[in-house]
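> call design_seq(struct)
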């Protein structure tokens, strides 16, 4: 199959492959859409088994970013970068300087940031070669770690789901099973604990797990046992595709709201959750707080102003209104929530494309 026949490539504006002889950098940048603004999405460093695997990953992730940025109503399109390599052994400043030069050559059609395997320090290296890097700590516009804002958004979505299902404003009497208590999962546990939830937690990192469990009075279970937890809510905050044909029959929950990207192994799983009467918070909607925080950095930089937390707050409020709209429409139209969210995101992307086309014709 050629790239142009690949279903993952469909809808993409472009894919850019980079090789740097001196540092050995092998990177792919996928630009799904610039209809709403420059494409934005993090850079992942992963030891892919093949270039084909890397290509498939970057294409799926970049498309997801178009949807995430549109549903959060950000003036950003969707893109993503992957660097092929082992982030534990193959990272060095020169590699990220080369990545910065690669992104710079795209002339601002794509902005990068940190993602799995890439740290703020790595992005700071790349930033020495290009202005097209976000999620930095320094400067008056710096947005810093997006994880607390991501957790805040997931928590707000959880409260809304609870209000619908149990008609209450807190989490008293409810149990949440949290899978992965890293950056986002840890902050999320703090919110949930404060709101009265009982927590069942798991992680493969024992040190982090013990620390979070201690401060939130949570019960620890083994990684595979989380799917059998007696909990009203399941919060996937580790890996993607944990909602699949093996795990669904084991879940006892009435709602799934978590931070992980690409939670549904495939779209049919969203229909299955709907049929099981489980309220599913579409992943790219409920975890949109982090990218919103990052978008505020770009906005501040472009206007010459400072990072504005109030702008982020207004966007988060709007994102939660969109979540309500998704839940309302899912009920009214008898469709799974992920389908409704996709329709809203696609509508916003198409409207931006149409407006651009109309402006081009008028010029
Ligand atoms: P993280 O690496 O800090 O945390 C993930 C945690 O999951 C780690 O503690 C890890 O040990 C644990 N884990 C890995 N495999 C596991 C398994 N099989 N079972 C249980 N635990 C496991 O990452 P993060 O920044 O907290 O992000 C969590 C998820 O949310 C990821 O899927 C990420 O893509 C997504 N996300 C994060 C942000 C953000 O702002 N950080 C924004 C949007 C989406």
């Amino acid at each position: 199959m050629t790239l142009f026949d690949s279903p993952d490539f469909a809808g993409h504006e472009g894919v850019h492959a980079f090789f740097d002889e001196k540092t050995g950098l092998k990177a792919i940048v996928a630009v799904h859409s610039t209809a709403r603004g420059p494409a934005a999405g993090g850079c992942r460093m992963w030891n892919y088994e093949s270039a084909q695997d890397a290509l498939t990953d970057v294409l799926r992730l970049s498309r997801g970013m178009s949807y995430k940025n549109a549903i959060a109503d950000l003036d950003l399109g969707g893109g993503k970068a992957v660097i092929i390599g082992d982030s534990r052994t193959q990272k060095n400043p020169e590699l990220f300087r080369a990545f910065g030069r690669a992104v710079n050559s795209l002339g601002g059609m794509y902005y990068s940031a940190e993602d799995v395997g890439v740290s703020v320090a790595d992005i700071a290296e790349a930033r020495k070669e290009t202005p097209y890097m976000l999620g930095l700590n320094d400067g008056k516009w710096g947005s810093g770690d997006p994880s607390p804002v991501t957790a805040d958004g997931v928590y707000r979505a959880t409260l809304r789901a609870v209000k619908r299902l149990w008609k209450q404003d807190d989490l008293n009497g409810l149990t949440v099973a949290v899978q992965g208590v890293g950056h986002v999962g840890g902050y999320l546990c703090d919110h949930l604990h404060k709101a009265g939830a009982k927590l069942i937690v798991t992680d493969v990192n024992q040190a982090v797990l013990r620390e979070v469990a201690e401060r939130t009075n949570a019960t620890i279970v083994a990684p595979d046992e989380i799917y059998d937890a007696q909990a009203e809510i399941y919060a996937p905050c580790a890996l993607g595709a944990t909602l699949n044909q093996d795990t669904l029959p084991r879940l006892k929950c009435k709602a799934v709201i978590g931070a992980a990207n690409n939670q549904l192994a495939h779209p049919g799983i969203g229909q299955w959750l709907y049929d099981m009467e489980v309220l599913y918070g579409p992943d790219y909607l409920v975890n949109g707080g982090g990218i919103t925080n990052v978008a505020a950095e770009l906005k501040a930089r472009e206007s010459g102003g400072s990072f504005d937390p109030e702008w982020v707050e207004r966007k988060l409020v709007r994102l939660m209104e969109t979540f309500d709209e998704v839940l309302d429409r899912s009920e009214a139209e008898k469709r799974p929530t992920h389908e409704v969210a996709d329709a809203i995101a696609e509508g916003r992307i198409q409207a931006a494309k149409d407006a651009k086309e109309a402006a081009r014709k008028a010029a």
